[in-house]
């Protein structure tokens, strides 16, 4: 049944925590939803723009980019290749043609009268078969066949030389005719051939003059590709003014407005899906980050306080963002986000404070996006991040209230530097008034954060009765009314509590438990003894022990009442529950051995051990368990006449083993390894307290005289 109640309690605790996170998520979504709602404009073609309309996003203009690429390709001229070897090749080919004609003519001359001579048609056919030059006329071949060898050699010397000379220069296709005419002119100027052979030479020479500078398709294509690749993609940039106020909206401008989504009157849901995912990631991350705390009883209170600080910080940012919409842009730098970060650090821990500051920074990027063209204000996000982290870092390990104001000044200093860097990086022309307002609001942010922290922290601590490091430090003040009461009414108990505090703090820190909580809890663990101080041996100075005159059962009742008397006194003073638990649990259900044995000696009847045990409960955490050990150890070691390290170590380990065997640690998560570490730490600490003292010579002489 007890296990069922425990499971039900855990389920209820986790359910409440889950609901708290869902509520935080809903609040975060509600605060940010207006900042992601798409902006639309209601305009038509040829109307005048009611205001400057800027693009909310960056999108590529593919059509314009392609048009620019085509224009760049068209601007690239064709690439040509100049074949320098063609002049020699064509000249040699012309010589080969003439040599063939000479060879055929010689072959005919050598034939005897009896041999049949080739007809002119046969000669032409043989020449054409040897060299394929279809652009040379039959009349030219006929003139060559009738020419003498001398004339042909003269032609062979003149024609190829002209071809070689003409083709030594680049000739494009459209320049071929001009080059051929030039070749004809050279032949006419340098020829002594007969009319018919000169005409043949001109025709053959013209046929061998061709274009030697031709188009290179591959090179041209490569050049055009390079030109196309150099064209930058055309964008409509985020923040680009698409149309100025009062200007006519042309069809082109209207098309641009449509492309960036400013004319889409239908509600776009994508931003809301994105915001939902953002909130889901934030809440899931926080829930996972607090996984260790979820198992603790105080988690409901823990998450409630965190949700309050989380929501308050976001609401303050949202309120200040509204002022920027009214033109008071400098006020956004006055946001006291460091207050939330510092309070989370002081009430919880540094890791959670850093994570929360990062979340605040991301949220600020959306909350303060009214002055930006897109959805994110990265400058404000950076400012919030630096603001919160600076407050966390400056507080450090010591979290005294006096240091909060100092942290505020440090935050202001960092805020001023951040704003100054932003102004310089923007390289804008700002008026002296604008710069002064921005820096002034940045300076105010740290001061306001410190004031809010100092004002809200006590309210939260008292309202939720929580135990922060700051509260612990305050409770450790010797001038606290309860501690003054212990000092004045039970001085022995006060000294005993101080010793227990020293021992328990060192032991807790050795195993990673909360040493400060152990120290402060030790100060208050025996306040119940002030109700009947003289019934406790540490307060019985120069007086009889009242327990010698009363029954052991009554002594047991008086002794076992002090944890609960102390708990009642602490509750009346509204001391945090963690301190009350220490006072109530530090004896657990241990046995009052002295009075139990005394009772056994006074009667022949069997005495039940349960009648002489503390009612409990047993220690619920490591700190209470260690304080209980330290309490017993201090009393035991103090009773030793000549404490030595060996005796001290032996008595410490006996006390721990007795409590372990008695089941006093069954309800807390302390391990055997940690108990061994505690034993070693207590031994070392007590060795330092009960160290051997040097016997000075003068004191020795006084003793001898006595």
From TrEMBL:
Keywords: Membrane, Transmembrane, Transmembrane helix. It comes from the Bacteria. The keyword Transmembrane applies. The keyword Transcription regulation does not apply. This is HD/PDEase domain-containing protein. CDD domains: HDc (cd00077). Residues 489-645 form the HD/PDEase domain. Gene3D superfamilies: Hypothetical protein af1432. InterPro entries: HD/PDEase_dom, HD_domain, HDIG_dom, Metal-dep_PHydrolase_7TM_extra, Metal-dep_PHydrolase_7TM_intra, PgpH_phosphodiesterase. The chain crosses the membrane at residues 12-33, 270-290, 302-320, 351-368, 374-395, 407-425, 437-460. It holds the Pfam family HD.
């Amino acid at each position: 049944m007890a296990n069922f109640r425990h499971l039900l309690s855990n389920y209820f605790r986790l359910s409440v925590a889950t609901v708290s996170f869902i509520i935080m998520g809903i609040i975060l979504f509600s605060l940010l939803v207006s900042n992601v709602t798409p902006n639309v404009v209601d305009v038509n073609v040829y109307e005048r723009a009611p205001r400057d309309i800027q693009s909310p996003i960056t999108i590529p203009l593919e059509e314009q980019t392609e048009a620019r690429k085509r224009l760049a390709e068209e601007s690239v001229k064709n690439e040509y290749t100049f074949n320098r070897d063609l002049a020699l090749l064509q000249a040699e080919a012309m010589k080969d043609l003439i040599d063939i004609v000479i060879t055929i003519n010689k072959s005919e001359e050598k034939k005897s009268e009896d041999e049949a001579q080739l007809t002119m048609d046969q000669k032409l056919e043989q020449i054409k078969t040897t060299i394929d030059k279809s652009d040379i006329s039959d009349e030219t071949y006929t003139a060559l066949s009738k020419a003498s060898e001398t004339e042909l050699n003269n032609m062979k010397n003149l024609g190829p030389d002209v071809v070689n000379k003409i083709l030594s220069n680049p000739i494009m296709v459209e320049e071929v005719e001009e080059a051929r005419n030039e070749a004809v002119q050279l032949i006419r100027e340098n020829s002594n051939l007969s009319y018919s052979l000169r005409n043949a030479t001109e025709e053959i020479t013209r046929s061998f003059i061709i274009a030697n500078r031709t188009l290179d398709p591959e090179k041209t294509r490569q050049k055009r590709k390079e030109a196309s690749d150099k064209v930058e993609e055309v964008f409509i940039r985020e923040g680009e003014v698409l149309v100025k106020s009062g200007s006519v909206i042309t069809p082109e401008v209207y098309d641009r407005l449509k492309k960036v989504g400013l004319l889409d009157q239908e509600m776009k849901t994508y931003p809301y899906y994105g915001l939902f995912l953002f909130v889901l990631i934030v809440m899931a991350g926080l829930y996972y980050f607090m996984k260790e705390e979820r198992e603790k009883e105080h988690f409901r209170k823990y998450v409630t306080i965190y949700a309050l600080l989380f929501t308050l910080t976001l609401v303050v940012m949202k309120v200040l963002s509204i002022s920027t919409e009214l033109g008071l842009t400098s006020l956004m730098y006055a946001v006291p986000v460091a207050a939330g970060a510092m309070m989370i650090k002081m009430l919880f821990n540094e890791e959670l404070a850093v994570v929360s500051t990062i979340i605040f920074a991301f949220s600020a990027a959306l909350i303060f996006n009214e002055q930006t063209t897109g959805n994110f204000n990265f400058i404000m996000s950076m400012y919030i991040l630096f603001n919160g982290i600076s407050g966390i870092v400056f507080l450090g390990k010591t979290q005294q209230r006096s240091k909060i104001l100092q942290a505020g000044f440090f935050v202001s200093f960092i805020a001023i530097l951040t704003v100054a860097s932003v102004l310089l990086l923007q390289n804008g022309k700002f008026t002296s008034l604008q710069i002064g307002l921005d820096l002034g609001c940045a300076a105010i942010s740290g001061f306001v954060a410190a004031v809010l922290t100092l004002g809200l922290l006590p309210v939260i601590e008292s309202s939720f009765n929580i135990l922060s490091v700051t509260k612990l430090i305050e409770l450790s003040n010797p001038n606290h009314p309860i501690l003054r009461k212990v000092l004045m009414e039970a001085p022995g108990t006060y000294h005993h509590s101080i010793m227990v505090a020293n021992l328990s703090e060192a032991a807790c820190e050795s195993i990673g438990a909360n040493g400060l909580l152990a120290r402060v809890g030790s100060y208050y663990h025996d306040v119940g003894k002030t109700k009947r101080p003289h019934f406790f041996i540490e307060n019985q100075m120069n007086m009889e022990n009242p327990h010698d005159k009363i029954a052991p059962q009554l002594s047991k009742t008086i002794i076992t009442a002090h944890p609960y008397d102390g708990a009642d006194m602490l509750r009346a003073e509204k001391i945090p529950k963690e301190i009350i638990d220490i006072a109530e649990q530090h004896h657990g259900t241990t046995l009052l051995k002295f009075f139990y044995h005394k009772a056994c000696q006074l009667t022949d009847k069997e005495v039940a051990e349960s009648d002489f045990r503390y009612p409990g409960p047993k220690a619920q955490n490591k700190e209470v368990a260690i304080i209980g050990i330290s309490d017993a150890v201090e009393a035991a070691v103090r009773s030793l006449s000549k404490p030595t390290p060996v005796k001290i170590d032996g008595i410490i380990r006996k006390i721990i083993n007795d409590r372990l065997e008695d089941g006093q640690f069954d309800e807390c998560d302390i391990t055997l390894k940690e108990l061994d570490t505690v034993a070693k730490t207590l031994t070392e600490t007590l060795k330092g307290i009960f160290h051997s003292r040097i016997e000075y010579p003068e004191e020795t002489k006084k003793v001898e005289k006595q």
